[in-house]
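Q: You know discrete backbone vocabularies at least as well as I do. I have my own habits and do not want them to colour yours. No explanation is needed for now; the record alone will do.
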Amino acid sequence: MKFVLEFCQHPPFEVREDELWADCVREWIEIMKDPCYLRIEGRPVFKIHGLMHFYAQYDKDLGLCRRRIDWLRQEARKAGLGELIIGAGVMAEDVTEEEILCSDMVDYLTTYADFGTLPGREEDYPYEDLERQAAEGRLRIAGKIKIPYVPFVMAGWNPRPWKYTMPIYRLPDEKQWRKTLETLKASLEDPRLQIRKGVRMFTVYAWNEYGEGGFMAPTLGEKTMKLDVLRDVFGGTDEN
């Protein structure tokens, strides 16, 4: 199993000062030296949680944003890690002109989670509505940007314990989850959705966001259903 660092800098967890950024970079570099750190074609992968949060925390100074990212890349080279693959998160509903402008600072875009634009209501929406919005979003974004978009799927979104006012969805059953993953697998043939040419990757929201109804981890109700279907669809070899 490999792991990746994600810089979750959404407010109020911002890193503005040069000294604090330097401290973060030093710590990240040491972590990237771990033999279990994810590398693609020998290049360590790093993700900025939200591209617009990153842009906004430096008062929309594009030059300063570039210098921060260049700083990280340079320190990685000096440490013998080579060239990084740096990604950033956007929402799947659409990509803005500002996000397109900022996207040339990074190597790929992706989405952590997206709940769509349906109006909030007391009744749960069908799970298919949640997946449809994610599937449409990845193609919409891929058609607008010049760098790869790494797609995502939603394992669920039903945050009733937290009383959100946004739309909520029924959790997927085995048939729905299988169809979601099979559709995703087919979409990964699109070169725009490959993090590197011929290298297919995607993310899942989420492993254990139980309070928000997005989880892959086994539960008493589902047991290991989501993991079993994931293995069935994508194979269970050591290379996957």
